[in-house]
Amino acid sequence: MAWHVCCLQVACEVAEEMATYIREHWPVEPVQLERPGHAMVWLECYFPDAASAAQMRAEWVRAFPSIVVATRRCDARDWDQFWRLHFKPHPIGRYLYCCPEWETPPALEPERRLLKIVPGLSFGTGEHFTTRFALEMIDRLTPATGAARSLWDVGCGSGILAVAAALLGWSPIYGTDHDATCLTQSVANAALNNVGERIEWGVDDILTPATVPLARVDVVCANLFGTLLIKAASRLWDATDHYLVLSGIREQEVDTVADTFVALGAHEVVRDGDGDWAGILLRR
User: Fold this and answer.
1) Which class in CATH covers the domain with range 2-75?
2) Which residues pair with 174 in a beta bridge?
3) Has domain 140-283 been given CATH number 3.40.50.150?
4) Band (134; pLDDT cuts 50, 70, 90)
5) For a FRET experiment, which of 50, 117, 155, 233 has its CA 20 to 30 Å from that of 164?
C-alpha cells in the first residue's frame, strides 16, 4: 500500500509547538522526523490518497506562507523485516536486558531482568537516547534491598518505562497517556512481559487538572518534549516525593528545562546528552 505524505519543514526549536498547533487545528497527527545536527525538522502527516494530501498542502500553504510545504508518495515498508535486521539485544544499566521478542536471549546474570520488546512505529527499542536515559535512571534508582519504589510513567506511550520498573520490582506503578490508543499497546507490552497486573493504566492529559487521581510517588518519569515539560512543571513536581526523571529534551532546551524545575525547589543530580537529546535526573 502507498501512502501520500504532506510535509512541513520547520526549525528545531519550534517543531513541538508547531506540531501541537497542527493537532489543535486539523484532525491529523504529525510525525516528527529529524537528522542529527540538522537545524530543521520535518513534520509529516500521512494520507491514503493523493487528493487528501494535496488538500492539506493547500491549507498549510495558506496558514504558513513562509514555511516550506511539500507532498510526496511513500510506499509501505516491511517494518517487521526492518526491525529484525537492525534491532539487536543489548543490556541497560545493572539490571535490564532489552531483547526483541523473536530473539533467544543469552544466559543472563541472576540480577538481570529480561525486557521483551515488539518494536514498531509506537514502541521504542530502548536504543534512542531519550528512552535509554530514562531506563538507565530507573535502573539506577532501583533499590538493591529494602522497600520497592513507586513510579508514575507520564506520557507512557508504549509503556516501556512502566514495564521495566515492574520487572525490577517497583510498586505501585502508574502509566498514563493523553491518547487512549497508546494504552492499548501499553497493556499488550505489559502482558508480553507478564507484569500486566502490576501496572495501573489511565488516560490523562498532563496539561489539564488530573483526571486520574494518584497518590504522590517516589519517582516521576516524563519522557516528553522540553516545552511540554516546562508547561507541566508544577504538576510533575507536585507528584513526586523524591525524584524526577526528565527526558525527550533537545540539547538547546536543557538549561531552560532544568532552571524551571530548580526554581520550584529541585536539585539536579544527573545531566546527560548525546549532542542532540538530553535527560535530567532531579531530586527533592
Assistant:
1) alpha beta
2) 152, 200
3) yes
4) very high
5) 233
